[in-house]
Write a structure and sequence with these properties.
With 337 residues, the chain is an alpha+beta fold. It has 8 helices and 21 strands. The longest helix has 18 residues. The protein starts with a strand and ends with a strand.
């Protein structure tokens, strides 16, 4: 089946700095794709290129098999993006939501369409008469989303849609986004730091770091600095006096990842080459990809996820709030730099 969007050999530079390097990326029609990664990893740049709001320096972007370019062609009217900071016209809510429909010469009952858009994001029809400066941050974000939903886009791109809003607005935004996929088959691409939400709703998760797609996840992201330790290892200090150990990094401020599957609960004694971490269990959840329980723990201020198999006795010992010991091998740390 032909992907809805296909990127091939895409690179993007800001002056001489490489901001994005994606050899290939496929986004299937009707899917929900999540983009995860730290600030500056390239998520927003990738979204702007997908939205045809920015032309990549080199490479090809195809929509349903047809090459497309930024700011041109019918494809730009089928794909729309909601930025993290909503931009509203200095007009009423009604005019903001109706603007895109008028621009596309959409006929029909504009009043009904605006009312439907407001309902989708949980706002009363009376909001249509309000002006842009009378809205809270959460209300403004919901109005901006409504303006995109009334277009019934083939693809909706969202950059941190719930990052700067209150809890109620965040939940309503999440529901409206999923409605678009369920009712219209809209393809969704969502960049968010809300990893649990992405994990719950996405068909695919893409991890970015320094503009590149990673083959590993970023659940256990280990920031520097690192300093030499014994026997050729390097260590990063934790807030409770413990240390994380790894092989030699390329530089002291390198960042690493410890795969969740490489951590295990200590059952008996340490095996040769293993290191110990004392942790507090934060939560237990079912991993939708592994179809098995996973743990969220805190080790001296460092959050970690454990996805190695757990038997019934181990699960019973891992109730939230309890102290557990984890084992890992320093050589399993993957350097990102």
């Amino acid at each position: 089946m032909e992907p809805f969007i296909l990127l091939q050999g895409v690179k993007h530079f800001y002056k001489e700095r490489l901001a994005l390097d994606i050899p290939e990326l496929q986004i299937e029609k009707g899917s929900i794709t999540g983009l995860a990664g730290p600030n500056g990893s390239g998520k927003s740049t990738l979204l702007r290129i997908l939205a045809l709001a920015e032309q990549c320096t080199s490479g090809t972007l195809l929509v349903e098999g047809t090459p497309v370019w930024a700011y041109a062609g019918k494809a730009s009217r089928r794909i729309t993006m909601l930025p993290q900071e909503p931009y509203l016209l200095r007009r009423t809510v009604y005019d903001n939501i109706a603007y895109g429909l008028r621009l596309r010469n959409k006929g029909g009952d504009l009043k009904a369409a605006v009312g439907e858009g407001l309902a989708l994001v949980g706002l009363d029809p009376s909001f249509a008469a309000r002006r842009w400066h009378e809205l809270s941050g959460g209300e403004a974000q919901r109005v901006a989303l409504a303006a995109r939903l009334v277009l019934r886009p083939s693809c909706l791109l969202l950059d941190e849609p719930t990052a700067s809003v209150d809890v109620k607005s965040g939940l309503l935004i999440q529901q409206a986004i999923l409605h678009a996929r369920e009712q219209w088959g809209t393809t969704l691409v969502i960049a968010s730091h809300n990893r649990s939400w992405l994990h719950d709703i996405c068909d695919h998760l893409i991890f970015l770091y320094n503009g590149r797609r990673l083959e590993c996840c970023l659940d256990n992201f280990l920031p520097g600095p690192w300093s030499p330790a014994e026997t050729g290892l390097w260590q990063a200090s934790l807030s409770d006096g413990q240390a994380l150990y790894a092989g030699k990094p390329s530089r002291p401020d390198s960042n690493g990842v410890l795969p969740p599957s490489s951590l295990r609960l200590m059952n008996g004694t340490l095996r040769e080459g293993e290191r110990l971490l004392r942790c507090t269990v934060i939560a237990i959840y079912i991993d939708k990809y592994l179809h098995a329980p996973s743990l969220q723990v805190n080790c001296g201020g460092q959050p970690l996820v454990v996805s190695s198999p757990l038997d019934e006795d181990e699960l019973d010992a891992c109730r939230p709030g309890r102290e557990v010991n984890l084992c890992y091998r320093p050589e399993n740390v993957i350097w990102l730099d």
